[in-house]
From TrEMBL:
InterPro entries: AB_hydrolase_1, AB_hydrolase_fold, AB_hydrolase_sf. GO terms for cellular component: membrane. GO terms for molecular function: hydrolase activity. This is Alpha/beta hydrolase. Residues 1-30 are annotated as: Disordered. Residues 83-334 form the AB hydrolase-1 domain. Keywords: Hydrolase. Residues 1-25 have a biased composition (Basic and acidic residues). Pfam families: Abhydrolase_1.
């Protein structure tokens, strides 16, 4: 999402590697390297539909799980069928705040910030099982079960990996699961260690004992925002909305005042326990999922490119899949209304 760590361009990346990275100027075109820089801190032109959607303010609060406070946003009435929305890595609950209002008339919708991201608490370690327990705690606390039916989980990218894990391990917790451009496969431990050593050699890169980089102005911070895997920001006004909500105030290193820094835990990936990721590398073959499962993906997504090139996938052969044309990995940025339409169609006719 934002610039915080340098990774060699030839290094292999996992399919849902939406972690922050920095590439030298010229390695990526400007619309990929710094999609918001041309606006110099101003908001890009924004269409009415988007303004109307984000004007529908959610209930904002926190749910406690495993000793951590988790940020939650909710729309719609308690008592209607529940939808739980889960964002990608280094993202936050507001990635769904222009999508969720389209479902608020018919559903109780909650978007959560995963631990270590958004305004949720950071942890000493992160684990797939803990994320699954967090999701259940959020679903219970925000009324997603109150309609008498278990909620449907919807997860994008890394969040889709969490949804898939929960669907395979705790099918009793959900009515169905929808993945949005979700890939599988993580770097081996030695690659993570190499990246960590390399990052620690680079000045202004966060480590366990050093805070995230602080930018002196909002304009400077927004100019460093980018998407991972690398892609253009299909709709800059959405990227800008997301970027502004990815930042928080922080003291400048020289003590001269406050600047801006990113809200996610920069060490999240290094703190992530790999137990529970055994489905990622395909060693166990296809994973049995007892709940109805669907996958929506972007036609131009790197994740789909990897899969077509033979990257292993644990998704069942009979998974229902829907392609969104003219979209990269970040479908809600590239084709938000097409994503809304696909989700609406799925929820109206599926699961049986």
């Amino acid at each position: 999402m934002a610039d915080e760590a340098r990774i060699e361009t030839e290094a292999p990346r996992e399919a849902y590697d939406d972690r922050p990275t920095h590439l030298e100027p010229g390695e990526l075109p400007p619309e990929v390297q710094a999609p918001l820089a041309i606006y110099k801190g101003a908001e890009p032109p924004t269409p009415k539909w988007f303004k109307d959607a984000v004007a529908i303010e959610p209930e904002r609060g926190f749910v406690e799980s495993l000793g951590s406070k988790l940020e939650v946003l909710s729309w719609g009435e308690v008592g209607k069928p529940g939808l739980l929305l889960v964002h990608g890595n280094s993202a936050h609950a507001d990635w769904w705040s222009f999508i969720a209002p389209y479902f608020a008339d018919d559903y109780r919708v909650t978007s959560m910030s995963l631990a270590g991201m958004g305004a949720s608490d950071w942890r000493e370690k992160y684990a797939f099982g803990d994320f699954a327990d967090d999701a259940e705690a959020v679903a219970q606390a925000t009324g997603l079960y109150a309609g008498g039916r278990k909620p449907i989980y919807i997860g994008h990218s890394f969040g889709g990996g969490q949804v898939f894990y929960a669907a395979s391990r705790f099918p009793e917790r959900m009515h169905a699961a929808i993945l949005v451009d979700t890939g599988f496969g993580g770097p081996p431990p030695e690659e993570l260690e190499r990246r960590k050593r390399q990052a620690e050699m680079v000045r202004n890169i966060p480590t366990v004992d050093r805070p995230s980089r602080v930018y002196p102005t909002l304009e400077a911070a927004l100019a460093r925002f980018r998407l991972m895997p690398p892609q253009p920001a299909g709709n800059p006004f959405i990227a800008d909305f997301i970027a502004r909500r990815s930042l928080k105030r922080a003291p400048l290193p020289d003590g001269s005042g406050e600047g801006w820094t990113w809200r996610f835990d920069p060490e999240m990936w290094n703190k992530l326990t790999r137990s529970g990721m055994e489905f990622s590398n395909g060693g166990a073959g296809k994973v049995k999922v007892e709940v109805p499962l669907a996958h929506i993906y972007g036609a131009n997504s790197r994740i789909i490119e990897h899969r077509k090139a033979g990257a292993p996938s644990p998704l069942p052969d009979d998974v229902l899949e829907i392609e969104i044309p003219d979209s990269h990995h970040h479908v809600m940025i590239d084709q938000p209304l097409a994503l809304v339409a696909a989700l609406r169609a799925l929820l109206a006719a599926w699961p049986h």
